[in-house]
Amino acid sequence: MNRVDIFKMAFKNLFRRKLRTFLTTLGIIIGTISIVVTISLGMAMKKSFEDQMKNMGSMNIITVNPGYDQRKMVMARRNDEEPTITQEQLEKIIKVKGVDAVTPIREERIKLVSGKYIASVQVKAVWPEFVKELGANVEKGRLLQKGDTSSMVLGSDIPYQFRDKNAKEDKMANQYRMMDREGKRPDPKVDVMKDKISLTFDMDYGVKRRNVNGSSKPKKKKVRPQDITCVGLLKQGNWQTRRAVYISMDYLEKIKGSYLRKVETSEERKERLKKERKGKGYQEVLVKVSDVKKIKGITEEIRGLGCDAWSDMQWIEQAEKEMNVIQMILGGIGAISLLVAAIGITNTMVMAIYERRKEIGVMKVIGSSIGDIKKLFLIESSLIGLLGGIFGSTASILLSKLINHIGRTTVLKNAPPEQMLSYIPLWLMGAALGFTALIGLLSGYLPARKAMKLSALEAIKTE
C-alpha cells in the first residue's frame, strides 16, 4: 500500500464512527484550550513585566555607587563627608573590557525659575555625549552635545513641576499629578523650549521666611539666578529620565563654584577647598554595555574595584525565573486535561482494533505488510490529535480575545493599550499543534502494535 492509500483509509475509518471520533477529538480540543489559555495567562504576565522593565530603564546600563563598607562609613562620618567614587576608580572602570561608554554623575538639588514660576528639581551633571547612551529620545529639540555649556535637557515631567511662587503652600499641587476629567494632563504653565529660564542653588529662592518678629529675613545672601537654555525635552520614558534635568558636568562645577564663592563664609570656603584638594569624587557612575550577556561579569569586576554595582538585568533574571515557575504550574494544570484526552485516544484505538479484527485479518491475507497496518493506526491517532489541536488552538485564540476584551472593560480599564490578560504568540500555536499530533501518535502506538500482532487466521475465524 502506498502512503496516499493509507491516508485515505485512515480518514475513512475515522469518519465511519463519527460520534466516537468527535468525542475523542473533543477531549483533545478541551485539553488544548486548557493548556494554551493557561500558558497564555502566564505569557501575558511575563510580557507585561518585560514592557514595564523597558519603561523603567535601559537593560544594558550598570549603575555604580560608592562602596559602603563599614570602615568607609565610619571614616566618612568622622570627616563629615559623603562616600564617593574616586577619580582613580572611575579610570579603572573605563578600562574594564566590554564597557562601551561611561559617565560620572553629580546630583544637585536646584531651583528652576521662569518669571513667577519656580520648580524644585534634581539636576544630573553628566558628560554630555553620554545622554544618548541612556536610550533617551527627545520630543522637542535635541540632546546634549559635547561643548554645550549653559544648556540643559529636561525630563518629560519637569514642565509640570513649575508652580506659582506666590501661591499659598496649601494650594500648591504639582501639575504632573493633576488630571482633567478625561485623564489627561493640562498644558504646563511654562513652555520650557521658549520661555526664559534660570537656575539657582538657593533652595530658599521664592520662599518667604519670617522671624519671630514677623519681618522677612533672607536666610542667605541673594545671588542672581544663572540663565540657562533648554535645548531638548525628552519623550515620556523610563523613571530614570522622566524627572531628571541633564546638564554638562563642567558647567555644573563652574556655576556652583561661582555661587559658593558669593554665599559662603571664609571658614566654609577653606573647608570646601580642603575637600577639593583631596581629589574629585562622584556620587554615581553609569556604565553602558552593548552585550547584555557580559553585564553580570562586568558588574562583578566593578565590584572588585571597591564599588557597589547593579543593573536591572540582575533582578529581572530572578523575576523571570519566578514567572517561568508560574507558567510551568499553569501549563501543568492544562496538561492534566491533555493527558486525560490522550487516554481517550488510546481507548478509542483499542476499541477500533476489536471492531475491525476482520478488516485487519483481510489486509494481512491480501498481502498488506505489518508496517502498513502499524502506519494506518498511527496515522488515525495522529489525525485525531492534529484535528483536536487545530480546533483547540482556534478556540483558544477566540477565548483569548474574549478574555482581553472583558479585561479591557474591567480590570485593565486605565491600563496602557499594549497590556493584556492573555497573550498567545505564534510559536505557542505551533507548539500546541505539534504537541497534540505527538500526543495522538504516542497514544496510538500500543494499539498499533496490538494490531500488528493480531493473527490473520484467528481474526477471520473469529468473525
Automatic annotation (TrEMBL):
Keywords: Cell membrane, Membrane, Transmembrane, Transmembrane helix. The chain crosses the membrane at residues 21-45, 328-354, 383-403, 423-446. It is a multi-pass membrane protein. Pfam families: FtsX, MacB_PCD. Residues 333-455 form the ABC3 transporter permease C-terminal domain. InterPro entries: ABC3_permease_C, MacB_PCD, Macrolide_Exporter_MacB. The keyword Zinc does not apply. This is ABC transporter permease.
